[in-house]
Write a structure and sequence with these properties.
Helices cover about 75% and strands about 0% of the residues. The chain is mainly α. The protein folds into two domains: about 70 residues; about 35 residues. It is elongated.
Amino acid sequence: MTSKETAKKIEGATTCGSSTPAAPNGQAKLKVKLQYRLLAFAGAVLGLSWFFEGSRQIAEAVNFSSVGYLLLGTFATVVFMGILSFWIYVEEKSKGTLKVRFGLFEKIYAKRLAKTQQITESTTNGSQAIREGD
């Protein structure tokens, strides 16, 4: 089965008679809060601003400050854009409309999902132990 056939199969899946596409793993749809999106976007814009400021300063004269602005701006922009793109990837995956799989994001998502399930299981086991102790 090709990835296109898999994507079509996922797109057609629905949850228990509802008309909305289901997440491929059966979980509820994930939505990142607007505040977090805006904060990450502002960080990316600020990083891009620092990048251009560093470029402008390097054009005038090369010194530690200009190189620092350029490197910090590049790093901040790449990190915040990576975070934003991961959030978009995870939302599309949870909706079942993901078109292309990206290996790095799949690994991060799998680790995040395993950690979340581990926390959920430990919480459930803890509450069962409390009930048994009653």
